Amino acid sequence: MHVSRWARAPSALQALIVAAVLPASALAAPAEPRAVDLRWEAPDGCPPADEVRSEIARLLGASEQHPPIEVEIAVARAGGARLRLDLRIRAPSPGERVIRGDDCASMSRAAALIVAMSIDPDAVARNAAAQPAAQPAPPPAVAAPVAGAPRPPPAAAVRPPAAAERDLEGALWLSAHIEQALVPAVGIGLAAGGGIRSGWLRADGAAGVVPSSSSRIAGMAAGAEFQLWFLEVDACARALERHLSVYVCALGRQHWLLARGREVDEAFARTAPIFAAGLGTLVERRFAGPLRVEGALHAVVPLRRPRFVVENLEGAVYRPPAAGLSARLGLALAF
Asked: Is 32 helix (H, G, I), strand (E, B) or coil?
């Protein structure tokens, strides 16, 4: 059947209209917001950030829209060939993980899996089930040995990459200690300790000393020089996780307060054990790799308040107050 060119004109006109409208509508469509807001820091030899994003998208599959998530991932060398990966989810549900290993590629894949599971674990499971199982590759052909040819050396055993994810983290810290609760005047000393952290819980043990603080009987030259030693145990729960980690802490501290007479007729020395309990807060700021800055402030209540006196003189040299403050500021190294 013959169709005239005029009969074909409406179809051609429609095609021109569609061709003109489609680019305009494509340009007018707003770009979809990125579901994963990823900040990636890694040394040379690690995958780029786009590869990590692609792995997250592959694990989630082509499913429905997902809520946006803010993630920070930092990889740093931890000595030799060992690497440490710190993963911190900022929003919508804050959390963090630490991965250690010697293969940055496998560690980045493990981090991508953690992020994908945080976004939509059901989608990750569905996508994994939908993917066909990989077929084993046929064994390579082996050439027959040639007479007189040297035998090749056996291949060295290849150790699989280790990227073990651990929730448990340890740390050692060293701090300047400021004490007002159990010495006559505000004293400055040193404290050192360490602890473990799992999720939002943290526990620390420490030892410290305030080497010198003095007091005297009111209106007299006679008095004493004091030195404070202590052992401390803290239990903390994380209350806030943003650019700073803020913990609420309870502590128990055993003190030994040493007093030596000053400007007295007969020299004396006395040691009083004092147990105290306290509540306070600890603030932690992470920097690159395992280094942190930590500060703590506690209200301390001594359960025993001994009275230091000089024999044959009226008045007390010192008696601890019913409550006081204790603070520290220093550096911590996570491992």
From this structure: coil
Cα-to-chain-centroid distance, residue 206: 20
pTM of the model: 0.55
How many CB atoms are closer than 10 A to CB 179? 25
Residue 26 is predicted with a pLDDT of: 40
In CATH, the number for domain 32-130 is 3.30.160.100
Mean pLDDT of 89-115: 86
Instruction: Name the residue ranges covered by the structural domains of the chain.
Output: 32-130, 167-334
Write out the DSSP string of 162-193: -EEEESEEEEEEEEEEEE-SSSSS-EEEEEEE
Q: Are 149 and 89 contacting, i.e. CB atoms less than 8 angstroms apart?
A: no
Helix (H) / strand (E) containing 14: helix 5-28
pLDDT digits (tens, 9 = 90+) for 241-263: 777 889 999 999 999 999 998 88
Instruction: Give CATH superfamily name and number for 167-334.
Output: outer membrane protein from Thermus thermophilus HB27. (2.40.160.70)
Strands (E), 33-144: 36-41, 69-77, 83-91, 95-101
CA atoms of 163 and 167, how far apart (whole Å): 13
**What pLDDT is attached to residue 231?**
98
Is the bond into 306 cis (omega within 30 degrees of 0)?
no
